[in-house]
Amino acid sequence: QQSAPTSTGSQALAIIPGDGIGPEVTAEALKVLEVASPVTFESTRYDLGAERYLATGEVLPDSVLAEIRGHDAILLGAVGGKPNDPNLPPGILERGLLLRLRFELDHYVNLRPSRLFPGSTSPLSEAVLAKGDIDFVVVREGTEGPYTGNGGALRVGTPAEIATEVSVNTAYGVERVVRDAFARAEKRPRKKLTLVHKTNVLTHAGSLWWRLFEQVAAEHPDVTTDYIHIDAAMIFLATDPARFDVIVTDNLFGDIVTDLAAAITGGIGLAASGNVNPDRTAPSMFEPVHGSAPDIAGQQVADPTAAILSGALLLDHLGHPEAAARIEAAVLADLSERAPGTSRRTSEVGDAIAARL
Amino acid sequence: QQSAPTSTGSQALAIIPGDGIGPEVTAEALKVLEVASPVTFESTRYDLGAERYLATGEVLPDSVLAEIRGHDAILLGAVGGKPNDPNLPPGILERGLLLRLRFELDHYVNLRPSRLFPGSTSPLSEAVLAKGDIDFVVVREGTEGPYTGNGGALRVGTPAEIATEVSVNTAYGVERVVRDAFARAEKRPRKKLTLVHKTNVLTHAGSLWWRLFEQVAAEHPDVTTDYIHIDAAMIFLATDPARFDVIVTDNLFGDIVTDLAAAITGGIGLAASGNVNPDRTAPSMFEPVHGSAPDIAGQQVADPTAAILSGALLLDHLGHPEAAARIEAAVLADLSERAPGTSRRTSEVGDAIAARL
Ligand SMILES: CC(C)[C@H](C(=O)O)[C@@H](O)C(=O)O
Ligand SMILES: CC(C)[C@H](C(=O)O)[C@@H](O)C(=O)O
Fold it and tell me: Is A301 one of the annotated binding-site residues?
């Protein structure tokens, strides 16, 4: 991982508010970012997502991608239209916009911290929560695995149809994300790293992940390691999540693990994520884990906390760890003082957190 | 689904006790089966698993498979050796024995009921449990998807290694399992079926699953249907599992969903499963979801309940639904009277359940 260049002047942000609640939560994230940041941001807004696609047929024009590439970082709200919109086939936006950005900008570390903040409600029982604090980070591989779009279909629509999806895993891709995960584990007090895969069934990919994990582990004797299958990981996340410190896993398993992690730590209203290019060859992208929630869009009822915390990850990535920590502390304070049963408008949450800075 | 032939005489069971706690829990399942069944069973025991492999290098000789094929049903305990045994590479037993049986015997319906029995402890909070009873069935596809073993690796052990895993999905394979799931949903009071997949990323396979699901749904207007992505399914399973009635999903997603389902319903000590060939062209196989737990093997501390409930699924499949229901009722009674904090020996649990029949 390259350390952030020390920057003093202004930094350029590409903002993709997206659809549904995206623009509302992004506005609050920007509000907080601007108050917390030691540098000024020059923001450029890019209208991408379901709305643009439905209006123009465009998903991510090459010229727009080239422009976005010129920024220091990207802040994304959420993209996605109404469920089952016949004009918006599944995958169009996901593959064409979100995954295209992750792949083109080489976001090979999809970073998802999972922490049960004081004051937020877990669906887990008191007995499970009593086992210890839930505070782990998932390092999800972001540029390979079953997400590559490899595969295809033959004789579509006939009884002889066959459809394949190919999970592509390379030593190049696995080693770099495993190295990143070890580096992150090394910086944490517990220094523990768990590999999650399904080596007993996906033996080709599993063997590659396992060997590189063991190989990099040998260079990090201070990091405690273990391995668990994805199915067993479900059980541990539900019954003993405190056991986890850092998890490294592939793109699809990471998608699954992080949504469960978000659920047990109080819901995706709080889960932040970074699509990180640790080599800094292209801008990294920060986004809440939640979707565009079109059913509640425009009503100022969405919780912007996940977007605000994604802003903190962005600041940290750009070399402002103190400012990131200040945002996190403000969110923590806000969460622990939220009166149960009451609800604030999206902008009120942003205001309250900004006011603490 | 072919209905079971009415049988009066004896039925032939192939018993694969397996490794670790497998033999102990299988003994109790057989004990209960023999008391509950209206027909006599002729059991043949097959020693297969880690122990045999380590001693002889044999996993599943063709001649043994041919013999097993001649039985009416298979009862399996658990297979698997000590974790990280260097003489037992990951996948050898899973691919060579368990999955080979599922694939060769065309177990395309991997049936996993998930029910929170009274008296058993869920890791979910009171607030989540108050939403309703957890009582759903997962119909996991068992012969396709990422489990086919398709894929491979190139330049293994070099920095240029590439490993692939191919998920294979056919209209033939998807339609038959979807039809089975609709038939099962139709027989349940709520008549609700949820498709779980990741259509927005795995677009080729997702489109096939989605289209066949919609097509079969049109023939079953009495069944309410919905669709959720695998990641969102994690959230619902953790925060509102009562919403599910029947779930149909692919082989890998089914593996993941059913372990989480087992966790939230009190642990894999209770989760039963059937690897069912609904066309009855080969014997179906019944097994607890849990593994061989070598660390507690031979100590008579394993809970045989999952194996016993798997025996009930076996009886039901062989055309003895009343006997199956009696076992379930006996297990339910046993569970609700288990004194918290005490523990019984494996054989005591079997005795107690058998005594209620
Ligand atoms: C929207 C979808 C493509 C995406 C993913 O699967 O990665 C989302 O679920 C996420 O986790 O960011
Ligand atoms: C042991 C393994 C091959 C198996 C699977 O992945 O199907 C197990 O996890 C299960 O769910 O029955």
Answer: yes
Helix B305-317, helix B321-337: angle, nearest 10: 160
Rounded distance between C-alpha atoms, residue A239 and residue A125, angstroms:
9
What the block records as the tokens of A222 is 């201070």
Cα dihedral B246→B252→B253→B255 (10° resolution): 60
For residue B44, the cross-strand partners are B14
Confidence grade of residue A343 (pLDDT, cut at 50, 70, 90):
confident
Atom of ligand 2 nearest to the CA of A198: 6
| Of the partner residues B124, B159, B235, the one whose CB lies closest to the CB of residue A172 | B159
- Segments forming the whole domain that contains residue A321: 1-108+274-357
**Domain match, A6 and A71 both:** yes
Domain-embedded: residue B113: no
* Beta-carbon separation of B238 and A167 below 8 A: no
* CB contact B207 to A (< 8 Å): yes
Of the candidates A94, A332, A166, A226, the one whose C-alpha atom is nearest the C-alpha of residue B201 is A94
Q: Is A206 on the interface with B (CB under 8 A)?
A: yes
Q: Which two tokens stand for residue A55?
A: 């209006």
Q: Is B66 exposed, middle or buried (0-12, 13-18, 19+ CB in 10 A)?
A: exposed
> Using a 6 Å cutoff on CB, does residue B201 contact ligand 1?
yes
Contact between chains at A166 and B160 (C-beta distance less than 8 A): no
Per-residue confidence at A9, pLDDT binned at 50, 70, 90? confident
3-state secondary structure of B245: coil
**Do residues B255 and B282 share a domain?**
no
Provide the number of structural domains found in chain A.
2
Least confident of A80-84, B53-57, B163-167, B248-252: A80-84
Task: Tell me the pLDDT of chain B averaged across its residues.
Answer: 96
Mean pLDDT of B35-47: 96
Strands A135-141 and A246-249: parallel
CA-nearest residue for atom 11, ligand 2, is: B255
Q: Which two tokens stand for residue B96?
A: 């060579």
pLDDT of residue B73: 98
Mean pLDDT value of segment B309-327: 98
Q: Under an 8 A CB cutoff, do B163 and A201 touch?
A: no
Tell me the residues of chain A between 16 and 35 that have a Cβ less than 8 Å away from chain B: none
**How far is Cα A180 from Cα A199, in angstroms, rounded to an integer?**
21
Q: What is the pLDDT of residues A32-51, one digit of tens each?
A: 999 999 999 999 999 999 99
How far B103 CA sits from the closest chain A CA (Å)? 13
The residue from A234, A265, A296 where one domain ends is A265
- Say how many C-beta atoms besides its own lie within 10 A of residue B293's C-beta: 19
Token pair for A153: 């279909």
CA distance B237 to B84: 31
Q: Is residue A113 part of a domain?
A: no
Residues A206, A250: Cα–Cα separation, whole Å: 10
Question: Is A164–B204 a contact, with Cβ atoms under 8 angstroms apart?
Answer: yes
Contact A231 CB / ligand 2 (< 6 Å): yes
